[in-house]
Amino acid sequence: MMLFLRGAVPLLLVGLALVGGPALLAWWVMGGPLSWPHLLVGVLGGAALLLILGLIFGRAVGRMRK
């Protein structure tokens, strides 16, 4: 159980940060009460960040000499 929690809790926190960061930024830019459009922008922004960082990491690993 502890091994599961040691892996799941940090992964959950990173997922929340990936969604929460862009959502809070969208809320700050667009103003108004925090609502579904802000959350949607957060989810899409988090997915875009994950995709971009994954492509950068994949390119760096692929360029390593064997």
- Rg estimate, integer Å: 16 Å
Given helix and strand content, the structural type is mainly alpha
- Report low-confidence residues grouped into runs of 5 or more: none
Q: Percent of residues in helical segments?
A: over 70%
Report the major sheet. none
Strand content: under 5%
What would you call the shape? flat
List the helices and strands in order. HH
Characterization of this structure:
- Helix content is 85%, strand content 0%.
- It is built from two helices and no strands.
- Helix 1 crosses helix 2.
Ordered list of secondary-structure elements with their pairings:
Layout: H1 2-30, H2 36-62
Defining key terms:
mainly alpha, 2 helices
Structure at a glance:
The protein has 66 residues and is mostly helical. Helices cover 85% and strands 0% of the residues.
